[in-house]
C-alpha cells in the first residue's frame, strides 16, 4: 500500500458517499445515470468474486464488500425507491454497446483463461468505459449540478491516482499489470474533458454547463 | 513480472 493507492481508494469511497448522500438528502437521483450505476454494480460483482477464494487483507476485504454493497444500494435507490425522479428520458445510452465488446475483449486478452480471471479482466475493461452513460447524460442535458460534478471529479480522480500508484509500484516493487494500466489510462482519459470543465467552472463557483 | 492471478488491488 502506498500513498497514491490509499488516496485513490479514499477518493473512490468519497465519490460513492457523495452520490449516496446527494440521492438521500435531495430524495432525488435526477442527473445521475442509472445505466452507469448498473455497470458499476456489474463491475464490482465480477471483479470481487475472489472474495470467495482469496484473502489479501482485512482492508481489501472490507473495501470490496463496501464497493459491492453500495453499488447495489445505489441501483436500488435509483430504480426502486426514488424511481419517480430518475431521468430515464435522458439516460438513453445503450449499455450492451459497452458490455458486449468488453466481454469479447476479456475473452481474447487476459492473463489466464479461467473463469475468475476472465471475469476480473472483463470488470477492468468494463469499468474503464462504465462512466460513458453518465457523461452522455450530462452532455444531453447540457449541465450537471455541482454535487454531481463533485461526484464525477472524485470518481475520475480515483483511477488517475491508481496510475500514479502503478508507476510507483513499477519502480519500487517491479510489479505491473498491463491490462489494468492500459484500462486505467483509457478510464482517466475519458474524464479529461470533464476535469477541464470542473477546474475552470465548478471550482470557481459556477455551474457545470456545456458550451452550446 | 510473475503472472500471478491474485489481484491485491481494488
Automatic annotation (TrEMBL), chain A:
Top-rank taxon of the source lineage equals Eukaryota
Q: Which GO terms describe its cellular component?
A: endoplasmic reticulum membrane
**What residue ranges are annotated as transmembrane?**
62-80, 92-109, 115-138, 178-199
Topology of the protein relative to the lipid bilayer: Multi-pass membrane protein
Q: Where in the cell is it found?
A: Endoplasmic reticulum membrane
Query: Which GO terms fall under molecular function for this chain's record?
Result: ER retention sequence binding
Q: Tell me the Pfam families matching this sequence.
A: ER_lumen_recept (PF00810)
Annotated PANTHER family: ER LUMEN PROTEIN RETAINING RECEPTOR
Which family is this protein grouped under? Answer: Belongs to the ERD2 family.
Protein name per Swiss-Prot or TrEMBL:
ER lumen protein-retaining receptor
Which organism does this record belong to?
Bombus vosnesenskii
Amino acid at each position: 500500500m502506498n500513498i497514491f493507492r490509499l488516496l485513490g481508494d479514499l477518493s473512490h469511497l468519497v465519490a460513492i458517499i457523495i452520490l449516496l448522500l446527494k440521492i438521500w438528502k435531495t430524495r432525488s437521483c435526477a442527473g445521475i445515470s442509472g445505466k452507469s450505476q448498473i455497470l458499476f454494480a456489474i463491475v464490482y460483482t465480477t471483479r470481487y468474486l475472489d472474495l470467495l477464494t482469496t484473502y489479501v487483507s482485512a482492508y481489501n476485504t472490507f473495501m470490496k464488500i463496501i464497493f459491492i454493497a453500495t453499488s447495489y444500494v445505489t441501483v436500488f435507490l435509483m430504480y426502486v425507491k426514488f424511481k419517480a425522479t430518475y431521468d430515464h428520458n435522458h439516460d438513453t445510452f445503450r449499455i450492451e454497446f459497452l458490455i458486449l465488446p468488453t466481454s469479447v475483449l476479456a475473452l481474447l486478452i487476459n492473463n489466464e483463461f479461467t473463469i475468475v480471471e476472465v471475469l476480473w479482466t472483463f470488470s477492468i475493461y468494463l469499468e474503464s468505459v462504465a462512466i460513458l452513460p453518465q457523461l452522455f447524460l450530462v452532455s444531453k442535458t447540457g449541465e450537471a449540478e455541482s454535487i454531481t460534478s463533485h461526484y464525477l471529479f472524485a470518481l475520475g480522480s480515483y483511477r488517475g491516482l491508481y496510475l500514479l500508484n502503478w508507476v510507483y509500484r513499477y519502480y519500487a516493487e517491479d510489479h505491473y499489470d498491463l491490462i489494468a494500466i492500459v484500462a486505467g489510462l483509457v478510464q482517466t482519459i475519458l474524464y479529461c474533458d470533464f476535469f477541464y470543465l470542473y477546474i475552470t467552472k465548478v471550482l470557481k463557483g459556477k455551474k457545470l454547463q456545456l458550451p452550446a | 513480472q510473475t503472472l500471478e492471478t491474485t489481484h491485491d488491488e481494488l
